[in-house]
Amino acid sequence: MGDLKKKLSWGGNFCRGILCFFNFFFLLGGVILMALGIWVLVDSDSKHLTAILTDNLHHTAAYILLIAGVFVMIVSIFGFCGAKMENKCCLGMYVFFLVIIFIIELAAGCIALYFYVKTDVVKDLNRTLTNNYGGEDGGDVAITNSWDFIQSSFECCGVMGNASSAVTLYEKSTWYKNQTDSPKNIVPASCCMDQDSLAACQQATSNYAMYIYKQGCSEGVKNKVAQYGTVLGGVGIVVAIIQLMGMACALCLCKRL
């Protein structure tokens, strides 16, 4: 190893040290990417948003970042080996795979951003609540369960506005039309603040609004969509910057071998 080190100038040794340094963070970034992808895929909020929104691109971005994270961890080995053994072949493969991963991460970031910008949350929520909530087929049941989860977890009812707006919207829904009891419930139980006061909440009494969540769900859903888009995009950018620095160091070291 001593003879090999003599081949390198101080600049080459500096590049090799910096490359090893960045590879540690690159490996850590791969672990974070993989963990982030798994988090988005298994998170309860994410699963239920997938059911009630038309575009599920945050899931696509999560899968891409999960795969990229695995590749990052594998490719970092080439970087360490190439730097330690001063092997041009390993360094060349390292740079090549970094470029591929960079493109994958860029695609995932663009998808996450597109999901955040394009998704018409209000339109999707209105459509799934009126057309699918309370339906009987498998897809409708999944949407119903997701709506109940969102309303209970986010402490909201309907899409926009106050309790009165939610009642008006639910009166147009499949759920309301399918009710056979009389009088009909004006909102589902997931809209009620106190599950011990369902009768007062679900019946059209003079003070029903006191028992229904005061806000629609659109703002909470928008904020959650923004959270996924920001986290996926932000982490992807940070890891991509580390990759670019690693590529520069690897190319610098290759030139000095």
Automatic annotation (TrEMBL):
Q: How does it sit in the membrane?
A: Multi-pass membrane protein
Stretch forming the signal peptide: none
Q: Which organism is it from?
A: Strongylocentrotus purpuratus (Purple sea urchin)
Give the chief site where it resides.
membrane
Pfam families (alphabetical):
Tetraspanin
Family designation: Belongs to the tetraspanin (TM4SF) family.
**Name of this chain's protein:** Tetraspanin
Which Gene Ontology cellular component terms are annotated? plasma membrane
> Which of UniProt's keywords are assigned here?
Membrane, Transmembrane, Transmembrane helix
SUPFAM superfamilies found in the cross-reference section: Tetraspanin
State which residue ranges cross the membrane: 21-42, 62-82, 94-117, 231-254
Q: Where in the cell is it found?
A: Membrane
InterPro entries, per database record: Tetraspanin/Peripherin, Tetraspanin_animals, Tetraspanin_EC2_sf
